[in-house]
């Protein structure tokens, strides 16, 4: 599996947003109502499955969607193991200049997606 951090090299080399985009990590709208199937909108079902407040999941989702694709291809929640997310997110949040609350929210969101989908 291609590592999360290896994709982030693009923003450090002046490649600009989307420079690392390839087949893996591209998000395509499949016409699902209310979101993209690989990156679903937070829902009460996701909050229940993950034991995380819906508001925190919403914060994580919006941070993920607005920030993560600026330097590299979006990493789809199901494509990485939980420990890979836990290892990579602190580095990415620091690199992006975001707050620790953003890190916690994004991690809660991606793990919520994984729990909801059973991955």
General form: globular
Whole-number average pLDDT? 76
| Secondary structure tally, helices | 6
For the report, how would you describe the main beta sheet? none
Rg from Cα: 14 Å
Distance between the termini: 15 Å
Low-confidence stretches: 1-25, 29-34
Strand fraction band?
under 5%
What does this structure look like?
The chain is mostly helical. The chain has a domain at 41-119. Helix content is 52%, strand content 0%. It is globular. Mean pLDDT is 76; it is low at 1-25 and 29-34.
Overview features:
single chain, disordered N terminus, 119 residues, 52% helix, mainly alpha
How does the SSE layout of this entry go?
Elements: H1 4-7, H2 9-12, H3 44-50, H4 54-67, H5 82-96, H6 100-117
Helix pairs in contact: 3-6, 4-6, 5-6
Question: Can you give me a brief rundown of this structure?
Answer:
With 119 residues, the protein is mainly alpha-helical.
């Amino acid at each position: 599996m291609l590592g999360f951090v290896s994709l982030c090299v693009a923003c450090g080399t002046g490649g600009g947003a989307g420079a690392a985009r390839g087949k893996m990590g591209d998000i395509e709208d499949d016409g699902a109502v209310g979101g993209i199937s690989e990156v679903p909108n937070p829902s009460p079902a996701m909050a229940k499955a993950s034991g995380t407040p819906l508001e925190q999941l919403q914060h994580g989702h919006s941070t993920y969607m607005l920030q993560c694709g600026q330097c590299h291809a979006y990493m789809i929640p199901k494509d990485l193991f939980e420990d890979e997310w836990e290892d990579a997110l602190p580095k990415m949040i620091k690199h992006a200049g975001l707050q620790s609350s953003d890190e916690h929210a994004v991690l809660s969101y991606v793990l919520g997606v994984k729990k909801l989908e059973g991955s």
